[in-house]
Amino acid sequence: MTHPVRDTIAALATAPGRGGVGVVRISGSGLAAFAQAITGRALRPRHAHYAAFVDADGAVIDQGLALYFPAPHSFTGEDVLELQGHGGPVVMKMLLTRCLELGARLAEPGEFTRRAFLNDKLDLAQAESVADLIDAGSEAAARSALRSLQGAFSHEISQLVEQLIGLRMLVEATLDFPEEEDVDFLEAADARGQLSGLQSQLQRVLATARQGSLLREGMHVVLVGQPNVGKSSLLNALAGGEVAIVTEIAGTTRDTVRESIVLDGVPLHVVDTAGLRETDDPVEKIGIARTWAAVEKADLVLLLIDQREGITELDRAILDRLPARLPRIHVHNKIDLSGEAPGRAEEDGHPLVRLSAKRGEGVDALRQALLDMVGWQGSDAGVFLARERHLDAIRRAASHLDAANHCWHGLELFAEELRLAQNALSSITGEFTADDLLGEIFGRFCIGK
Ligand code: GDP
Ligand code: ZN
């Protein structure tokens, strides 16, 4: 493959704002001269040089480290220059302006990673994992993103693709033989065994990818329950031991609507429905509309009730408005006041957990019930971070293999289904990927990545 020469791009690679160090990254061609103009000296490839960064008149803008990575041995596969200066917004802007004077333009979001992809430094799944690593919401998610970045996911996919190609070649060869010999030829190579082996491997990859997608997306939980039933206490109990509780204050001054906690590595986004009631207050109405919008995206409902009172009319009214497909866990709280034992049971066909949010008894049972409900296997070992796009491609490939399995007596169709399965899988690593999909994927990156 030949690659078109692309223009030179520059961006602040570190987070905007103040920091000990700020990095400006430049990618393009002919950067040796570019580096010479800024640092006043020739840079040795892949060596850290302590240098003054100067403007067109030779006045010093900043001083710091300059690193030059000539193509193709760089992140983007092009010449890359990194200037590490002092992380102040003004000084970084001056340095960036100097780069623009020298002919660079500001990079678009994700443009460095996009170039790395276009120059075959990374496949698409790896490129996506760069953004996922940066956005990782838990250590387990970060480890899994790194596994994808290192190619664990891509490797699984390309192995499957290779096996598919082997089977396709076998079928194509068979198609070239006279009719009566077909069966023997395929049988000799155990084509059926190969196909069913592929099918089960695909299911295994799908299961792992589902775990990865859970780590990436987390689960969206709606907490339903009357005032004072113990919702805030339960959230605190669930978050117990976790370092980070991110609290987003809603538009109303009255209540917290959303909290994110991490459960066994799985991000848990909890929406408190405290404000879900009839109201004329316009501000509160906005908050309630937002809450219902969040309910639309929910994976699961936690119905919290006072163990001594059971489900009330008000709970019913809210439950009636929730989509019927939403899985639900009933939580009977305040068992310390009634003397019930903590533990799991069932109610109205939904799992039930009895606990005391205040004392903590039974909270572990709820944690486990939540993780069971979304199918979390309990560890991120071997899990690679996956996106909905990947799950979708794997499912499509699986359905083409199922279709193929019904086509043993029409080998043209069989071969076609195998081809479609291969295309679906290849879309994960980006072998045949439309420009608009690339735009969508890289457009969500931060600038400078
Ligand atoms: P929310 O309005 O649903 O968020 O309820 P809170 O979490 O603010 O709790 C309301 C009151 O119930 C507080 O005084 C809590 O201490 C109390 N409470 C919450 N959970 C329990 C529990 O398991 N046992 C007992 N005895 N009190 C609880
Ligand atoms: Zn509360």
UniProtKB/TrEMBL annotation:
Binding site for GTP: 228-233, 247-253, 272-275
Cofactor dependency: K(+)
Entry EC number(s): 3.6.-.-
Cell compartment(s), UniProt: Cytoplasm
One Pfam family cited in the UniProt record for this chain: TrmE_N
Protein's name in the database: tRNA modification GTPase MnmE
Top EC group: hydrolase
Family named by the database record: Belongs to the TRAFAC class TrmE-Era-EngA-EngB-Septin-like GTPase superfamily. TrmE GTPase family.
A GO molecular function held by the record: hydrolase activity
Function description: Exhibits a very high intrinsic GTPase hydrolysis rate. Involved in the addition of a carboxymethylaminomethyl (cmnm) group at the wobble position (U34) of certain tRNAs, forming tRNA-cmnm(5)s(2)U34.
Subunit structure: Homodimer. Heterotetramer of two MnmE and two MnmG subunits.
NCBIfam families attached to this UniProt entry: mnmE_trmE_thdF (TIGR00450), PRK05291.1-3 (NF003661), small_GTP (TIGR00231)
InterPro entries given in the database record: G_TrmE, GTP-bd, GTP-bd_TrmE_N, GTPase_MnmE, MnmE_dom2, MnmE_helical, P-loop_NTPase, Small_GTP-bd
Residue ranges constituting the TrmE-type G domain according to the UniProt record: 218-375
Species, as recorded: Chitinimonas lacunae
Binding site for K(+): 228, 247, 249, 252
Keywords, alphabetical: Cytoplasm, GTP-binding, Hydrolase, Magnesium, Metal-binding, Nucleotide-binding, Potassium, tRNA processing
Annotated Mg(2+) binding sites: 232, 253
Cross-referenced SUPFAM superfamilies: P-loop containing nucleoside triphosphate hydrolases
Binding site for (6S)-5-formyl-5,6,7,8-tetrahydrofolate: 25, 82, 121, 449
Comment on bound cofactor: Binds 1 potassium ion per subunit.
Organism taxonomic ancestry: Bacteria, Pseudomonadati, Pseudomonadota, Betaproteobacteria, Neisseriales
